[in-house]
Amino acid sequence: MQESCQHCGQKIAIVGTTGSGKTTLARKVAQHLQILHIELDALHWEQNWTPAADEVFRERVTQALSGDRWVVDGNYSQVRDIIWSQADTILFLDYNFWLVMGRLLRRTWRRSWQKEELWNGNREDFKLSFFSQDSIILWMLRTHHQNRKKYLLLFQQPKYSHLSVIQFKSPQMTDEWLRNCKH
Questions:
Q1: Has this prediction a pTM greater than 0.85?
Q2: Which of 20, 57, 169, 180 could form a disulfide with 93 if both were Cys (CB 3.0 to 4.6 A apart)?
Q3: Angle at Cα 6 formed by Cα 17 and Cα 176, nearest 5°?
Q4: How many angstroms separate the CA atoms of 139 and 17, rounded?
Q5: Planar angle of CA 17, 8, 81, nearest 5 degrees
């Protein structure tokens, strides 16, 4: 795995645990490289936090990736084969637990307080976010360490050997890579 590079790729997938900053980085990469940003959450979630049927989600992703240059963010295993088979670069946000937890708490608090619309009319709210079994905070607690192990194993699979994998251990590493990134 690389930690930095000069050429950034033309088809970039960003992965990492919930709250690590995938969408924020994808927006920055899209702006910096002047490429399309595809947010998987926007393609996955229907109104009232209802997930799209897998075949609908897969078709949406296939359509979204039809261009020559894009950056996509998200961790959905049901579309990984579509994305990773076309991608040339994976950016792995492998930040420590406490950094991600702090970011997630701040982001979730802000979204809940401001009633910020996310996708298709969905909004985070205090009860759902902090006091339910479907809490995004609980999700992060359950998946943070598993995701790290899972991605490190996935990157070693021969079917993904075509990918340039760049692992970021800190936001400073990520920012430095983006500053040095060229088309």
A1: yes
A2: 20
A3: 55
A4: 10
A5: 50
